[in-house]
Specification:
about 30% helix; 6 helices; binds zinc ion; zinc ion binding; Carbonic anhydrase; carbonate dehydratase activity; two-stranded parallel ribbon; alpha/beta; three-stranded parallel sheet; Carbonic_anhydrase_sf
Length: about 170
């Protein structure tokens, strides 16, 4: 959902691509969303460095936080060391493996280094709910908006992380 990926993803838009965005590219919290997609030929899991959701994973693995709301979200990470960089490196393939178990499609993962991305800091951020589609965030909101782009039934973990860890207070509906 990270706003810093917005411009990068705009560059990937094509008539063939459907974007799904959530906290940490976590497949376990996307059951409704993935079940509703049709005609999928390939899936690319896009994770990134300096990921807030992986910071949450680290905190939970350290035992600093054990919210029941994150049980599904945490399942792929049980047993990993609480090392943020290592978790970020592992996450893409953990999620890709989860997709491979659910769908008979080509799956790959990419870890984007946020240090290479172009974005501006606007200081005040909102979140925008979107349905999975080829649409990306409107241009006027490209630097200020975290995007949760999935089926409404899959959003509870994303809202929890956005509120409690990213400190986002304002949520808009597309
Ligand atoms: Zn992230």
């Amino acid at each position: 959902m990270d706003r810093r990926l917005n411009r990068y993803l705009q560059g990937m838009a094509s008539g063939q691509t459907v974007f799904v965005r959530n906290a940490g590219a976590n497949v376990a919290t996307l059951k409704d969303t993935l079940g509703s997609l049709e005609g999928v030929e390939s899936v690319t899991i896009i994770t990134h460095t300096d990921c807030g959701a992986m910071g949450v994973v680290e905190q939970v693995l350290r035992g600093n936080d054990r919210p029941d709301d994150l049980a599904e979200f945490m399942r792929p990470f049980i047993g990993l060391r609480p090392d943020r960089d290592e978790i970020e490196r592992e996450n893409g393939e953990l999620q890709a493996d989860a997709v491979r178990k659910m769908m008979d499609v080509e799956v790959k993962s990419i870890l984007v280094n946020t240090g290479t991305l172009r974005y501006e800091s606007t200081g005040r951020y909102r979140a925008l709910f979107m349905r999975p589609s080829g649409n990306t965030v409107p241009k006027e909101r490209v630097d200020s908006t975290y995007v949760i782009q999935n089926s409404p039934g899959d959003r509870s973990t994303d809202i929890y992380i956005a509120r409690n860890f990213l400190k986002i207070r304002e949520f808009d509906q597309e």
